[in-house]
Amino acid sequence: MEQDYAKALEWGTKAAEKGNSDAQYLLGYMYSSGEGVEPDEGKAVEFISAAAEQGNYLAQMSMAQIYFFGKGLEQDRAKALEWFKKAADQGYPGALEAMGEFCEEGYGVMDPDFAQAAEWYEKAAAQGHLEAMFRLARLYARGLGVEKDDARAEELYAQAYEGITAVGDEAASNELWALGVMYREGLAVEADDAKALELFTASVEAGSPKAPAWLGAMYLYGEGTEPDEAKALELFRQGAERGDAEAMAWLGYLYVTGTAVEQDYDLARQWYEQASDWGNGNATANLAEMYEEGVDPDPDMARQLYEKAAAQGSEEAQAKLDSLAG
């Protein structure tokens, strides 16, 4: 096997020097993963970037992920979006799904656009992308960006469930997260907290940004396991470090309530603001509540934040606005 890696490195280097984008991407992958060579993020970015500039869609996807997670280059989600779009324009399913995520979540780069998110997810799902099916199902279930359609949502949940379970041990980290959510909420399968806990744990270990918040919530409330506030705090911090706004919002909640940490409204506000800036409607709604009911109330700011939260998909915020209007 070592000899095979040596040959791959030798021939890949020669081809890359001649401008072969597939070879450049292969070398970048080897230096990124450390397969056959010592890991070197600098060289990985150099080769992947060269391939991406030539239109290699796998390299474009990798550049997007490098910027999204800040691995090898400073985190820059606006640049990540640019590279995802280039790969999506070539029809790559993972990039189509990622474009849907940006439109749904915002990620601090754009205002949520659920209708556009649904369009991207539809394109990815049509090519068999399992996480896109799951995310699209959630939009249909809530009527976000599409007309609410429970039957369509159930159909998509079932397709995602069948696809992810068929993949088995080869499932990607976010596919494990999606399957965990289905077991947690009883979507296309009977609810099973123990199974959800198992799947979220595997997803966290595989590097999913989304799973730590869900697993942390289960430890916080003792669902499928014994309550463990310290473990929940650890998981929420892990999710926040991975850039998940939901985990940031949970940290805000812990600081508001003084759960597993010393109560600190300033830190709570900071975490809610960061999560809000990254598109989390629940965090924005909680921030609005702090301005509405806090030590120094600001009704105008509270209303602006409720409106922002509603636009981000918060049903709680929309209900609050409806009550104020009534």
Describe it for me?
This protein is mainly alpha-helical and 326 residues long. Among the domains are: 1-81, Tetratricopeptide repeat domain (Serine Threonine Protein Phosphatase 5, Tetratricopeptide repeat), CATH 1.25.40.10; 91-170, Serine Threonine Protein Phosphatase 5, Tetratricopeptide repeat (Alpha Horseshoe); 280-326, no CATH class. 73% of the residues lie in helices and 0% in strands. The protein contains 18 helices and no strands. The chain has helices at 2-17, 21-33, 41-53, 57-69, 77-89, 93-105, 114-126, 130-142, 150-167, 173-185, 193-205, 211-221, 229-241, 245-257, 265-277, 281-293, 299-311, 315-325. It is globular.
In short:
The protein has helices spanning 2-17, 21-33, 41-53, 57-69, 77-89, 93-105, 114-126, 130-142, 150-167, 173-185, 193-205, 211-221, 229-241, 245-257, 265-277, 281-293, 299-311, 315-325. It has 326 residues and is mainly alpha-helical.
